[in-house]
Amino acid sequence: VLLVGLFFIAAGVVGVLRLPDFYTRLHALGKSDTLGVALTVGALALRSGATLTSLKILLIVAFVTLANPTATHALGRAAYRAGIAPWRRKDAL
C-alpha cells in the first residue's frame, strides 16, 4: 500500500512537470496527491497496529482527504479571478 501511495505522489510530480498550464497542473496534483497521501499515511497506520497512534494517523488521513480538494478548488478559483487564462491548443488551420 505504501508503494502504491508513493506511485500516485510521483505521478502527480510528473504531471506538474509535464502539463502546460496552471489549471491542468493543479488538477493532476490535486487528484493524485490526495490519493497518494491517503494511501501512504494509511499504510503507516496499518504498520503501527491498533493503537492510539493509528487513530491519530487515520484522523490525519481524514483531514487531508477533506482539506486537499478544498484547497485545490480555492487555488483554481483564485487563479480564475486573477485572470490567468486556461491553456488552449493552437489550431493548425
UniProtKB/TrEMBL annotation:
Pfam families: PhaG_MnhG_YufB. This is Cation:proton antiporter. GO terms for molecular function: sodium:proton antiporter activity. NCBIfam families: CPA3_mnhG_phaG. The lineage of its organism: unclassified sequences, metagenomes, ecological metagenomes. PANTHER family: ANTIPORTER SUBUNIT MNHG2-RELATED (PTHR34703:SF1).
